[in-house]
TrEMBL record:
Entry's family note: Belongs to the Nth/MutY family.
Top EC class for this record: hydrolase
Top-rank taxon: Eukaryota
Upper lineage: Eukaryota, Metazoa, Chordata, Craniata, Vertebrata
Sample GO molecular function, one term: metal ion binding
Protein name: Adenine DNA glycosylase
GO biological process: base-excision repair; mismatch repair
PROSITE patterns: ENDONUCLEASE_III_2
UniProt source species: Rhadina sibilatrix
Pfam families cross-referenced by the UniProt entry: HHH, HhH-GPD, NUDIX_4
Enzyme Commission code: 3.2.2.31
Compartments reported by the entry: Mitochondrion; Nucleus
Function of the molecule: Adenine glycosylase active on G-A mispairs. Involved in oxidative DNA damage repair. Initiates repair of A*oxoG to C*G by removing the inappropriately paired adenine base from the DNA backbone. Possesses both adenine and 2-OH-A DNA glycosylase activities.
UniProt keywords, alphabetically: 4Fe-4S, DNA damage, DNA repair, Glycosidase, Hydrolase, Iron, Iron-sulfur, Metal-binding, Mitochondrion, Nucleus
Length: 413
């Protein structure tokens, strides 16, 4: 069995835990940001509506910055203020509102879960983190803990990226912070720390601290309300010869929470030595040919053909210009030929490769894909009959295109 973590990595002193809670909550009451989901949760008397409001915000905030989410959240809650309203919406409407927010499966799963609450749970949100995670698709351990603590007062901790950073610095946890053993330990810590009288506020305070003070680079340590509890700061202040036993010496090679011996403390980094993460895999490089097919509409305005992506996978269910993934390092002439063949299958009529006008390239970075779109244009004369057996497609004006559920990448195109 692996060695247990030494006490100095943990929060084992009840007096320290109580002091940390008090300092953090007092700071949060003074300094918390004014965010729409917090305001809504604070004034909403109905537990289910409060839970729904928090749930939407937590799903939107997954891997997306607060500043980006605010406008989307306000539009969403105005359009679908209740679970029941969302359950009655179409997936197309959800995708249209979500367009540009990224990670589109989040919106789809949110609506699926809302329909399940309405149809199978009599419109009543589960009240505990365990039931939220078990019963709602797309709700993981963190989201369940956030909803349960903020909306229903359950004394359960949360662990997200901000909390990981704060806890790793507070207790000099230098092992790979994405490893299951470290994540389990961080959850145990979060559950020890959470304030049972104000669990939602405490969890939000811990996340707020990571988002605004204990940031990845250049943290504002002197403004930190819990700096006196921070092992990483203490180590930085002590320099290379700390007068107290060094937390890094605690395990002598077998501590599951210390950095590996091959990655010793770097004094130039200070508290940003923590957390340590495994090296990221480089993004997959992809190249796609996409063609903007244009025709003259019945009122004289140009119209453009968009087609719907498959219902699963990347950008599931969104609309795009006809596109074709390409092998790397194709010559432009070969790209044109492959794209022409692809369009010919759509249109049921010959497409001459030389008729495709190369416009340029658009680069779009997904979280795990470095995508390059080779953009072509083709003007069509007369009507075109599209094969109904292929993916759904439609002609749209420029305004209709921007109102459709299209990705940010396609808007760049």
């Amino acid at each position: 069995a692996p060695a247990p973590p030494p006490a100095r990595h943990l929060f084992s002193d009840p007096a320290e835990v109580e002091a940390l809670r008090g300092n953090l909550l007092a700071w949060y009451d003074r300094c918390k940001r004014d965010l729409p989901w917090r305001a809504l949760a604070a004034i909403e008397p109905d537990a289910d509506r409060r839970g729904y409001a928090v749930w939407v915000s937590e799903i939107m905030l997954q891997q997306t910055q607060v500043a980006t989410v605010i406008d989307y959240y306000n539009r969403w809650m105005q359009k679908w203020p209740t679970l029941q309203a969302l359950a009655q919406a179409s997936l197309e409407e959800v995708n249209e509102l979500w367009a540009g927010l990224g990670y589109y499966s989040r919106g789809k799963r949110l609506q699926e879960a809302a329909r399940k609450v309405v149809s199978e749970l009599a419109g009543r949100m589960p009240r505990t983190a365990e039931d939220l995670q078990k019963l709602l698709p797309g709700v993981g351990r963190y989201t369940a803990g956030a909803i349960a603590s903020i909306s229903y007062g359950q004394a359960t901790g949360v662990v997200d990226g901000n909390v990981i950073r704060v806890l790793c610095r507070l207790r000099c946890i230098g092992a790979d912070s994405s490893s299951p053993a470290v994540i389990d330990q961080l959850w145990d810590m979060a559950n020890v720390l959470v304030d049972s009288s104000r669990p939602g506020d405490f969890n939000q305070a811990l996340m707020e601290l990571g988002a605004t003070v204990c940031v990845p680079k250049a943290p504002l340590c002197e403004e930190c309300p819990v700096k006196q509890h921070c092992q990483a700061r203490r180590r930085k202040l002590c320099g290379n010869s700390p007068p107290v036993p060094d937390v890094e010496d605690c395990g002598v090679g077998d501590c599951p929470l210390c950095p590996p011996a091959s990655e010793p403390w770097d004094s130039s980094l200070g508290v940003t030595n923590f957390p340590r993460k495994a090296a990221k895999k480089p993004p997959r490089v992809m190249r796609t040919a996409t063609c903007v097919l244009e025709r003259r509409g019945c009122h004289g305005a140009p119209e453009y053909l968009i087609v719907q992506r498959p219902s699963s996978g990347l950008l599931a269910g969104l609309w795009e210009f006809p596109s074709l993934p390409l092998a790397q390092n194709l010559q432009e002439e070969k790209e044109r030929e492959e794209l022409a063949d692809h369009l010919q299958a759509w249109m049921g009529q010959p497409v001459v490769a030389k008729g495709l006008q190369f416009i340029g390239e658009v680069i779009h970075i997904f979280s795990h894909i470095h995508q390059t779109y080779a953009v072509y244009s083709l003007h069509l004369d007369g009507d075109v009959t599209l094969d109904p057996a292929l993916s759904p497609s439609r002609w749209v004006t420029e305004d209709e295109f921007h109102a459709s559920a299209v990705s940010t990448a396609m808007k760049k195109v």
